[in-house]
Structure formats: structure tokens, C-alpha cells
Amino acid sequence: MVSDRAFVFRTILFLAFLHYTGPATAASPGIHQLGACDAAATEASHRTGVPLKILKAVTRTETGRSRDGKITPWPWTINVEGKGFWLGSKSEATDFVQKSLNSGKTLVDVGCFQINIHWHGEQFMSVDDMLDPTRNAVYAARFLKQLFDETGNWKQAVGKFHSRTPAHANRYLERFNRIFAALPGRRSSFPLLSQERTNSFPLLKPSGGASAIGSLVPGGLGSPIGLFTTRSN
To answer: Does 117 fall in a domain?
Structure first.
């Protein structure tokens, strides 16, 4: 028969075990967010026809960090004027972006595909809307498709997705190529998409008769559109 002292001791050990395992269990929902960008990329690929492997490589190039020996994208990634931040939740990311904008920062990239608020913000209802993984991914995929229609080449489209400045685009492609090659799946002969060149991005309509559309961080364009944060809701 177990003595009262032994029973109390075992009870204390059991309660201590529950205490120290509780926080890890409470934090576990954050782990499920690790797949949010890939899930969004899959949905965007289905909607637009952009090859899934390209979208997965782009989101890793934009937001990926090494985790367990693999490059993993993160949906609550924010870049403010060239400095990256990986926030713990969507609400934290939304607050961080809003504070950055309120402090006068304008070059802010958000979400799985790092959509630039300065150039693309008016295509979304709010910061929260722009951070939604699926909306972020679908917008990026449609933009990539339009760049492919322009160039006829996926690698060139990916480079222009980042920048129309060749040096910036080439540096971006170096990282993209490494990540793309490491992903499972076919490495070449991507399916061709429709060559219809309908511009679904009104903010990217050329000015002054120029024929080229912009990029997520355009080079050589005029003044940007106003941020969506200036709009009344």
C-alpha cells in the first residue's frame, strides 16, 4: 500500500509534469502556420496556372528561413526598408506593419510573397487583407503570370517579379535557382500558359507610352500610388 507521503510526492511530480508540458502544447498552433504559404501557393497555382514549384520557390526566396535543414517560408514575414522581421502571428504582423507605416516608413513588403505596400497596397482592402496568405499568393501568382506573358520565360518573369533593375533581379535569381533546384518535382519544361496579355493590374498600366509593366519593386517609374492606409474604411 502506498504511503501518504509517497502519494503526495507522486502527485507533486505529476502536477510538475503538466506544468512544464503545458506551454509547449499551448504554443503548438504556431507550428501549423509553417505550411500556410505552401497551401496558399497550391491554391494560387490552381487558380492561375502558374507552376506550383515556381510559387513554392518564390515564397521561400522571399520569406524562407532554415528549419530542420530545410528552407521554410513564413506567412508573417515583414520587410521594412530592407530589414526582415519574422513575426509570431498575423495580428503581431498587422500591428507591426501599421506602426511602421505610422512612423513614416513606406517601403514595406508583407506576407508569403512579400507584396510591396508602396506599389501594390491599393489592390487590397487593408493590411490584414494583404497579409492573408491566399490573397497574397493569388495576387503574386497573377502578377507572375503577366510577367511570363510579357517575357515568355519563367526565370525572367521571376527576376522581374523582384525588380526590373538587372543587378537586383540577377542577385535574386541566384538565390531562387538554388532553392528551386532543391525542391522536389520537375526541374525544367514548365507548361506554357496562355499568351493573352490582358493587364489585370491597373496600377501597372504604363505611362508615357512605355510598353513594359512594373515589378514588385519597380525601377524607373514615377510617383507611386497612395497607400491603402490613407483610405477611409
So the answer is: yes
